[in-house]
Amino acid sequence: MMAPRLARILIVLAGVMGADGVILAAVAAHQPDAARLASASSMLLFHAAAVLGTLALAERGAIHSGIGILAASGFVVATALFAGDLTLRHYAGHGLFAFAAPSGGALLIASWLALAVAAAWPKRP
């Protein structure tokens, strides 16, 4: 069983990620040379849905809930690094820190692999 408070926090963060993704998509559609914002928007939107889907699978017992929570948390942190770095580069001309976007990308890959492990190694009743 998932920790209800942690699940709610992740759901709230997924909602914020989704809203930010829509905002950045709208800005990218109206600003010239906004490829970074379009990429950041895509990452936010895709991974907001991934967080919600992972939590739903964990709640249903279809995946190992502890590893699923780890994967969902990784999606949130990694997407913040990746999208935050690209957005800051667009508006401020510099990133969060050296290798923030690649670190976020690597953590996204690790989170997807964690989701795969959670499905392959379900928790026994």
Overall description:
There is one protein chain. It contains 4 helices and no strands. It has 125 residues and is mainly alpha-helical. It has one domain: Four Helix Bundle (Hemerythrin (Met), subunit A), CATH 1.20.120. It is elongated and about 50 Å long. The N and C termini lie close together (10 Å).
Short description:
This protein has four helices and no strands.
Number of separate strands? 0
Return the structural class: mainly alpha
CATH class: Mainly Alpha
Mean pLDDT: 95
N-end to C-end Cα span: 10 Å
Q: Fraction of residues in helices? A: over 70%
The biggest sheet, with number of strands, parallel, antiparallel or mixed sense and barrel status, is: none
As a percent range, the share of strand residues is under 5%
| CATH-scheme architecture | Up-down Bundle
How many independent structural domains? Answer: 1
Computed CA radius of gyration, to the nearest angstrom: 15 Å
The coarse silhouette is elongated
